[in-house]
Amino acid sequence: MKKPWHLDRRTFLRGVGVSLALPWLEGMAWGADPAIPTRRMGFVFFPYGVPMPPEEHADRLKYGWFPVGKDRNFKLTGTHQSLEPYRDQMTYFGGLSHPLGRRVPGHKAGDVYLTGADISGSGYRQSVSVDQVAAASIGDKTRFPSLVFSTSGGVNHQYRSFTLSYDKDGRPIPSEHRPRAIFNRLFTSDPGQKNALKRQASVLDAVLSEAESLNNRLGARDRVQMDQYLSSVRESEQRIQRAEKWLAAEKVKVDPSAINLDVGPEGPKDLIRSMFDLLTIALQTDTSRVFTYQMGGEVECVSNNFPHAVGLKATAHKISHEKTNYQQWSTFSRFLTEQFAYFLQRLKSSPDGDGTLLDNTQLLYGCCTSHTHVAHNYPLILAGGNKLGIKHGQFRQYPESVPLSNLFVTMLDRMQVPVKAFKDSTGELSELVS
């Protein structure tokens, strides 16, 4: 029964012409059991691998990326000191990669980071990414089934993708990269959107009618092609219907002055943190529960200059080719890690149910290469999700026979997404769950 002090989850503070979404308050829990978490997941990618001094190197603990030690007896390197406060809320992985991804050079492997597809040889055969598997299952619960962010935007081209996300047919999903445009899409109402959707729906209706009439006169082979086309059109129709449904619900209103929306790639630290701020608010307001963020792409000009933010003259690509200058590479890796630590802090300080956003959100932070573009032994950290049944505070090391897809299946299971397998998975990583 609703009490006088119970609040609606989408309660706003209104005044001086601005509406602000409230954070989670205990009074909002009247309609649901706060012990049942809202499950979320996200993937943050960085390019070009990590510094990996040999184990016997004098500066291994100072400049390396992977921890020293194993299981629960590990030490964070100097590169990752910013993550020390989150030690019990994250797990490092060693040895995991996509077996099919090992068939292509490291620069190309970024395309299959979340798909595990085989893009070797003369063909380019992509498949659905793990985030879109989750979005297909739980995306109807939020205004946006998933969010796809990057530094450069769009999709670019095969083997140099500017997106991590691919639909069920392996088609790249364009990423968004401009903070202000993202903010407007997520939190600003567009009066003309309803009419635009009606026009699109009318066009699709006409296309479907003509195509289905034509389909009856086609031969068997042409019908296969036409059926694929019709399937795509019907999916577009369903997306429009879904968008029309959400138009009836008021968007959460957020004060744009709380985020630096006009920053660009010339200020890497501010740009990355603005994207993390947007993601935090999107998760906090339940605008979406699934996201990907490509902090930089393989051989991508914009993020290639990010090392300049910490006083390094070399590009990220050039740094990754250094054989012995671990200090320089560690400096840049430390910069990226500090931005990820900022995101963890934002989530940890945001109440959510009987925990925090970090407790209820799985975050995979990593890259598709280890050292000098080698598509093996991906550097990976799984953070958050403690209240989703994930056991953290470990450095887990695996043989190459264990595919990265096993981790994806484990994460999907924690999202309560009903899948038995993903790509080449052989099971779950049961040692990660309680």
Give an overview in words.
The chain is an alpha/beta fold and about 425 residues long. The protein is globular, with a radius of gyration of 22 Å. It has helices at about 60-65, 105-110, 130-140, 180-185, 195-215, 220-245, 270-285, 300-305, 315-320, 325-350, 405-415, and strands at about 10-15, 20, 40-45, 70, 75, 90-95, 145-150, 155, 160, 290-295, 350, 355, 360-365, 380-385, 395. The protein folds into 2 domains: about 35-180 and about 260-430, Alkaline Phosphatase, subunit A (3-Layer(aba) Sandwich), CATH 3.40.720.10; about 190-250. Strand 1 and strand 2 (about 20) form a beta hairpin.
* Rounded radius of gyration (Å): 22 Å
Order of helices and strands: EEEHEEEHHEEEHHHHEHHHEEEEEH
Number of strands: 15
Which percent range fits the helix content? 25-40%
- Report the CATH architecture of the largest domain: 3-Layer(aba) Sandwich
Which class of the largest domain in CATH terms?
A: Alpha Beta
- Tell me the major beta sheet: 7 strands, mixed
Question: What is the straight-line distance between the termini?
Answer: 33 Å
Shape: globular
User: What is the fold-level CATH name, i.e. the topology of the largest domain?
Assistant: Alkaline Phosphatase, subunit A
Unreliable stretches (pLDDT < 50, length at least 5) are 1-32
Features:
434 residues; two-stranded antiparallel ribbon; globular; disordered N terminus; alpha/beta; 11 helices; Alkaline Phosphatase, subunit A; 7-stranded mixed beta sheet; 13% strand
